[in-house]
Amino acid sequence: MLIKNEPAVLDWAFKRGDDYGCDLQYCNVDGTPEDLTGFTITGMARENAHSPKLYDIPITITNAKEGRCEITFTGEFTGALGITGRPQEMKYDVQIVSPEGRTLTFIIGTIKVEGDYTRPEGAI
User: pTM for this one?
Assistant: First the structure.
């Protein structure tokens, strides 16, 4: 029997300074929501798997019983991503840890940051 556990791919392309968000639902293989009560959820972005952490991914569990979580990138957050001298493309993943300590990567992807033109004078 072959059992595959593939993370979902969720790529983002940001305009610096804009707000973005995504509501997610973590489900079992049969499609029923996984109860995330007692789970922790974290995510990090890096240039590559071996480089230092650049950012924490802003993700929170919004309804544990229904397996719902949300990634919310504020304009302040995306504005900081595109500052000159910082990477404009990075890889990230999101992992959940069960109350028993089992870790599972359930989202992977790329974040690309594009410059904006409408911003306060003097902003980089």
Answer: 0.84
